[in-house]
């Protein structure tokens, strides 16, 4: 018995360090291929696979653990847009990362509005998928610059307007505005810190201030807000 307890205690740190990922795609081959690729990384654990957003929700509700849901955007029955809404409504702490193509602009907009943390193009190299999962797991947003530029004219959801500051600055200081614009470009806190010669802690503080001033929920909404202007 002592040996069993010792083995259990030793396994806990290893488990807690893993990023638990739920794969969602209606294509069996893609699901299995992603599983093989992602399992090569020592920090990622595949906890389940689903063929639709609804099935993913059911797995989570049945007890399947996930830090990140990697989900296709176009699926029959319940696509990634609706799946994101269902998952974020029930499990707001789970990050959703979309798999998409350049032709899915409007789907991407809707997924971001529903709470997705970003998206990856399906043709990116496997290491980029791994890094993307780690990026959103760390609380950063992932937006491909090429698609970010295309999104500017497609945003449809009204955004809150500052009541007392000129619209040119959106109620933000110059430093906060620079951080907000960098978020809209898809940069992580680390990348923003390097770009603006700030510490990551300072960037995090700016993000908090931006969210409060604009009455927004997360980095994704900051990006949507900035792209809308």
By helix and strand content, what is the structural category? alpha/beta
- Tell the overall outline: globular
What is the radius of gyration computed over CA atoms, rounded to a whole number of angstroms?
19 Å
Helix content: 40-55%
Sheet of most strands = 5 strands, parallel
Poorly predicted sequence stretches spanning 5 or more consecutive residues: 1-16, 155-168
What's the short story on this structure?
Helices cover 52% and strands 12% of the residues.
Write structural notes for this entry.
This protein is of the alpha/beta class. It contains eleven helices and five strands. It has helices spanning 2-16, 28-38, 53-61, 80-90, 105-113, 126-137, 145-151, 174-184, 189-196, 200-214, 219-228, and strands spanning 19-24, 44-50, 68-72, 95-100, 118-121. Strands 2-1-3-4-5 form a five-stranded parallel β-sheet, with helices on both faces. β3, α4 (80-90) and β4 (95-100) form a beta-alpha-beta unit. α3 runs parallel beside α4 (80-90) and α8 crosses α10. The longest helix is centred in the N-terminal third of the chain and has 15 residues, at 2-16. It is globular. The protein starts with a helix and ends with a helix. Mean pLDDT is 81; it is low at 1-16 and 155-168.
What labels describe this entry?
229 residues, five-stranded parallel beta sheet, globular
